[in-house]
């Protein structure tokens, strides 16, 4: 097996076809796609060094660890941090993509490479977050790293919410409590009676549909005095690029709730390898029909469609929102692993660890005292 490291954007783009084949064979996620990570690097790679590890069995690509190195400041201290492509701004899972039978060899060679980088000062810190804690490759990689570096591993670093176990839209509805199901269906009927209807957009159409999604997302957050995700031009251009491309391949759609010719709510949904992702929403909070839980009715329609079309799961990503606490939802976790060199050379990384420990403590306190305990056995109390 040959180990190659890609360091230029041109080489990265040339990986597209073999990457897509590996992604298909490995049943990769939306966030492991070349078509997701290449645009991310295009809009977020400035000032960073590309470092994409690849493994080849003869001419066949069998593994990818898509990383980069950046200069990071921690107060007066500057350190060189290595992390995974896609980790900033755009949500989701960030995990290497490796064929299972090559995982052990790839993990060992990657760990040896990065331990060498830590010892030489090419990197002061390895920082991986947003990967599934059960990832076989990452478990092997972390075990190999421990032979030459100090590793901090937090298996429950960031929660996200999934819907799993449904084989059809009808089965999904049965996962809900009777009260929840009947409430959503009643609101659906009331919306229809008021003349509202769901529009499903599968074609790019010059970008006008995406512009309406942006508008509805922004107006929702303006109510709270915040810019929302589209307050970042970089994120906006990234998501516009990705959505246009994936729509052309039948892997993206936008749901709208319409009333009297006006789009009043929107939901962006992706479908990759039978994995659905309800990625981003928007709504006009001032519209009179919002009293009928428009956003949640729209999500119900997207869930039903996804499972009717064969999806095995639907990911609602992170965020502490009320609708993610209902029966039928499952909490999953993304893990975080950070590695620093032994000895004096590891002092910079140790400072970073201290900052992470402080952040994690504050996050745990917030979850304990601000947010209700996640319990998918019953519906939460209604305000």
Q: Note the main sheet.
A: 13 strands, mixed
**Radius of gyration (Å):** 22 Å
DSSP summary, beta strand count: 13
Quaternary status: single chain
Q: What separation lies between the terminal Cα atoms?
A: 58 Å
CATH C-level category of the largest domain: Alpha Beta
Please tell me the total number of domains: 2
Number of helices: 11
Briefly characterize the structure.
The chain has 383 residues and is α+β, with helices and mostly antiparallel strands.
What does this structure look like?
By secondary structure, the protein is α+β, with helices and mostly antiparallel strands. It has 2 domains: 2-159 and 333-369, Aminopeptidase (3-Layer(aba) Sandwich), CATH 3.40.630; 166-311, Aminopeptidase. It contains 11 helices and 13 strands. It has helices spanning 9-14, 16-25, 34-44, 103-120, 136-145, 169-175, 178-193, 208-222, 233-248, 294-308, 347-369, and strands spanning 2-6, 49-57, 60-74, 77-84, 97-98, 125-131, 150-164, 197-201, 252-259, 262-272, 275-283, 313-317, 330-340. Helix 10 links the parallel strand 11 and strand 12 (313-317).
